[in-house]
Amino acid sequence: MTATITPGVQVAGPAARARAPRTGRRRTRLATVGWSALSVVLFALFAFPVYWMVNTSFQPNNEIRGSEIHFWPDNFTLRNYETVLFDPGRTPFLPAAANSLIVTITTVAVALVFAFLAALAVTRFRFRSRRTFIIAILVIQMIPGEAMMVSIFRVIDGWHLLNTLIGLTIVYVATVLPFTIWTLRGFVNGVPADLEEAAMIDGCSRAGAFWRVTFPLLAPGLVATGVFGFIQAWNEFVMALVLNARPDMMTLPVWLRTFLVANGTTNWAAIMAGSTLMAVPVIVFFLFVQGRMTSGLVSGAVKG
Amino acid sequence: MTTTDAGLTPAVSAVEGERLTAPEPGSPRSGRRSRRAPTGGFTPYALLVPASIVLAAIVGWPLIQLLVTSMQEFGRAQVFGAPPAFVWFENYVAVLTDATFYEVLARSLVFAAGCVIVTMALGTAVALLLQRLPKGFRLLLSLGLLLAWAMPPLSATIVWGWMFDTDYGVVNHVLVNTFGLEQFTQHSWLIEPLSFFLVAGVIIVWGAVPFVAFALYAGLTQVPDEVLEASQLDGAGGFSRFRLIVFPYLKPIFLITTILQIIWDLKVFTQIFALQDIGGIREKTNTLGVYIYQVSIAGGDFGTGGAIAVITALILMSVSLFYIRRVVKEEEL
């Protein structure tokens, strides 16, 4: 029990528990070596699936279905990427990627503007029902999309927006709005209102003070929040599956799934190439904002 | 301010030496400002209009629709225009007297509980490990964690599905050739519900541990060294140091991450749905989220599906309530 919860204590055994500084130091060094070795093993475990996806994507399809397993793409090929990108026999990748990009970017742009205005309202003004609004935002965020998919499907259908990019975008804006407002609220709060007041004393209007003083300081927060939203919309699967099932209106996750339906004849090498293409932008963006991700997630409860 | 803010706000980046300072929502000045802040007349309401319209249209209206539908007979005929008849609570009665629903519910609860426990235990262990690592190794492990965390859930599921493939999966290959476990030759992992959920659990835990580990690690860096040293001099062993000093510091983060894990794991959709595509038996592996989809979208019974959705939402909302209360209490709103 202690070994897992407080590493570093039991490694050297009871003999080393004596308080003498020399053995203590040696024990610490030994422990550090042990923990470092463990961290390498854990790194391998966590990174392996990602490696395996990329590795498979560069191997010929007949080879990955052979009796041998290739832990390294010795017969490196780009054929799978070619298949995924240009094979006329399949639902093509490029339109799906374009759909994903259009929906995601529009979602982020619209949500940022709307959320920004709302964040301003709740941080810079005291007004009646302000608290109610903030709590409503938190509650809305916790309503599971899985429970709502049926009724959202019917509402979007009622507006004749099924299988359109606009319909999906509207739904995504509503999906990312609560956490975008919540995170931006934190960032705006981080800029002291005193700065604006000082600018107003110097003759700026309220809006002008905000635009010239606070907005530049918020830029990093806006970028981080935008990236969160991008990842969420890019990865979203349930709503896209329900609302945009028509081949020419699919987004990447729904497109990727079509590879699986042909059971038994799944082209694993190609689907790994497709997965890689879908994952790379997310991984790049993610590494870019990862520091803020943890606190953003805890306070904003993104994901899912 | 409670300890959470101390623990959460200065998000410690996984990259050594880089410490990003997130905004401080509950700084002491907010109290002072609240007295000075203008009421602004109509301005704040105007600023809220765009967001409110979208949320009302895509959350509020569907929510009302959902409640209405759940009390209607709403099948394929109604989708094609027949007027739906009100049956009031008949759908709910049907769902709540259906053994299949209880199977799905129990499966979801047990599966979520398992995932949450394993995720939290591993996440805590990894956080403590991160704290003890020298710089370079910490960076390496952080990179591995970030890769797992960043993978889109669908890609992750597909990749793991491929790794557990019956004929050409690397898992079977290694089990047979490296460990000599011949019984795994052509072993089919997804066909048995139990091992199906084992694979699903591995995917979910693999993707969720990084978040828990980083959040707890950020909290750990806030525990003052002097207090720990003092307690060590007083003769506190490793475990009691953790229980008496470290854990109280981590408790708020622990609580929030656990609640979030419960919510996410209870409503899990993507991983289960995609694994079923790869080779699971749907009837034996449905969880709440997937079941709603099967009954309403695939099965065309929107009335019953609506009732299941409302019940699911109520279960999740009761868990969420803890989270919302906690957040409202901590942030000076």
Please, could you describe this protein's structure?
Chain A has 304 residues and is mostly helical. Chain A is built from 13 helices and no strands. The radius of gyration of chain A is 25 Å and the shape is globular. Mean pLDDT of chain A is 83; it is low at 1-20. With 333 residues, chain B is mainly α. Chain B has two domains: 43-88, no CATH class; 105-332, MetI-like fold, CATH 1.10.3720. Chain B has helices spanning 3-8, 29-36, 43-69, 76-79, 90-96, 99-132, 135-150, 153-163, 170-177, 193-220, 225-233, 238-266, 270-278, 282-285, 288-298, 302-330, and strands at residues 72-73, 85-86. Chain B has a two-stranded antiparallel ribbon with strand order 1-2. The model of chain B is unreliable at 1-35 (pLDDT under 50). In chain B, 72% of the residues lie in helices and 1% in strands. At the A-B interface, helix 1, helix 2, helix 5, helix 6 and helix 7 of A face helix 2, helix 3, helix 6, helix 7 and helix 8 of B.
Low-confidence stretches of chain A: 1-20
Annotated CATH architecture of the largest domain in chain B: Orthogonal Bundle
Question: Helix fraction of chain A?
Answer: over 70%
> How large is the radius of gyration of chain B?
24 Å
What is the helical fraction of chain B, as a range of percent? over 70%
Radius of gyration of chain A, CA atoms, in whole angstroms: 25 Å
Structural class of chain A: mainly alpha
Query: Strand percentage of chain A, roughly?
Result: under 5%
Largest beta-sheet characterization of chain A: none
Largest interface: A-B, 119 and 127 residues
End-to-end gap of chain B:
13 Å
CATH class type of the largest domain in chain B = Mainly Alpha
The global form of chain A is: globular
Structural class of chain B: mainly alpha
End-to-end separation of chain A? 32 Å
- The overall pLDDT of chain A, averaged over residues, is 83
How many independent structural domains of chain B?
2
Family (chain B): Belongs to the binding-protein-dependent transport system permease family.
Keywords (chain B): Cell membrane, Membrane, Transmembrane, Transmembrane helix, Transport
Region (Disordered) (chain B): 1-38
InterPro entries (chain B): MetI-like (IPR000515), MetI-like_sf (IPR035906), UgpAE/MalFG_permease (IPR050809)
